[in-house]
Amino acid sequence: MSQDGYYIRDSTIGGQAAGKGFFSNRDLTGGEPIAIIQRPLMASLESERLKDTCANCYVWTEGSAIGSRLYVKRGITVQMCAGCKRFRYCSKACQKEAWNRGHKHECKNLKPVADKELPKAVLGCMEILVRRKQGLIDDQTWQLLCHLDSHIDDFKANGNYDGIELMAMGTSQFSATQDTFNKDFVAQMYARILSNSMTLVTPTFEPLGILIDALLCHINHSCHPNTYIVMDGPQMQLRALRDIKKDEELFISYVDPTMPYLRRQSELEQRWFFACKCSKCQQGIASQEDDWARKLASLTTHNRELANEEIKRAQDHSVGEPSDEQRLATLQEKTFNSYEEAQQQSDPAEAIRTIEGAIAFCTESNLWLAHHQPLPALRDELIVNMLAVGNYEGAWFECAKRHRHAMPKLYPQIHHPIRVVQTWRMAMLAQYLASTGTEVAVGADMALIAAMLINTISVTSRMSHGPDNAFTKSVQLKFSEVEGELLGRFGSEDAMNAAIQRQVKLLSEMGK
């Protein structure tokens, strides 16, 4: 692991002690790598991903959407471990690597429970306990891991400790480590995983499961982060989101920093048991994410009546006339509820109806701009569901709106990994529409628009993911392919660039 870009010392956030923190040991430029870890200490796949994802290199063999996952080799499949019948591997090499890393010690323990669905945190905790028992986790890493707060007292206070104890009993039994770790220690380790794990993701940020890294899990949180973590299979990279000064503390965001202040605070309190005092949260509702909440003058009579109905429905008795602040908060909660409802719907057509109704309310109410949550999240979900039902043209126009109005505000850095990945998916959709000959708009040349977007990503992906990331390499290959095709079509680079510039304006108009 490279440690060239940081050092560790005591941290103070918002005037309060925040344990140890990571600090830059030199001036860093946005997009620069800070630390590279070849594999987290533990990663555990979601139950549904156990069937289509390699448990060693985490290649996801299913779920490709309109070519957006070109970094996955064609024809790759996963085969079940003949012993435990739970984990799958994409090759003999991956299976051997996992076996030597510790699976040979847990395989026999998992075989008797092959027909049981075990939570990912249980499987992850089992892996850690078995590997430590077998001497496969060194003392320094173990001490770093055990230094992570288990938050046992917090779990007892919120009433969840009984469930943790129950899961820990099963973990101890299934891992056959009762002779090494007592039940209280196993409960602490299980709680430590629940309260410190990060999300295991693909290079394009599809969630696969959870992970624990004894070092990177110590990085402090900020709702205005200056770093982020990107993955390439098991490899983790900590990269600079923006320019960072020497001795400046390094932060990642544990939550979606584009969400409003109160929702961020609520999620951080419930999941990580702290009240955030970062620079953004010290502003309260004065930051960009809460602009909508200062629009009291925009409350129409219809909005007030709608909010009054929602408030009345939620209360058992009248508590007097609500304030406009209460009405705004109620309307925001209503839109977030619609977003969460759409996420839970299994029928894409039904989800689309829910989302379109919520988007219509957001826009007609005049309370939300295109970059105020949950409107961008609703649009993201709408795109996913439109692609699922084959409404590619409709998905394209939603992408164009997101590209014009939301992404520059939510992700101002051109190399922000979410912005890069969303632009890549948009480029692949444009290329697909070009291949079908769909006339999206008068004068629109979708092949040119796709080439323009891919050209942008060929530059920004090197900063967002690094030049050696599988995602970046697939972007470079695609760029070489489309550039060659267009040069052959236009005869010269000048003619091609002139044609592309005409499409830039048209793309902007499609996003209105």
TrEMBL record:
<dbReference type="GO" id="GO:0005634">
    <property type="term" value="C:nucleus"/>
</dbReference>
<dbReference type="Pfam" id="PF01753">
    <property type="entry name" value="zf-MYND"/>
</dbReference>
<keyword id="KW-0862">Zinc</keyword>
<feature type="domain" description="MYND-type">
    <location>
        <begin position="54"/>
        <end position="107"/>
    </location>
</feature>
<protein>
    <submittedName>
        <fullName>Histone-lysine N-methyltransferase ASHR1</fullName>
    </submittedName>
</protein>
<dbReference type="GO" id="GO:0008270">
    <property type="term" value="F:zinc ion binding"/>
</dbReference>
<dbReference type="InterPro" id="IPR050869">
    <property type="entry name" value="H3K4_H4K5_MeTrfase"/>
</dbReference>
<dbReference type="InterPro" id="IPR002893">
    <property type="entry name" value="Znf_MYND"/>
</dbReference>
<dbReference type="InterPro" id="IPR046341">
    <property type="entry name" value="SET_dom_sf"/>
</dbReference>
<keyword id="KW-0863">Zinc-finger</keyword>
<dbReference type="Pfam" id="PF00856">
    <property type="entry name" value="SET"/>
</dbReference>
<keyword id="KW-0479">Metal-binding</keyword>
<dbReference type="InterPro" id="IPR001214">
    <property type="entry name" value="SET_dom"/>
</dbReference>
<feature type="domain" description="SET">
    <location>
        <begin position="4"/>
        <end position="255"/>
    </location>
</feature>
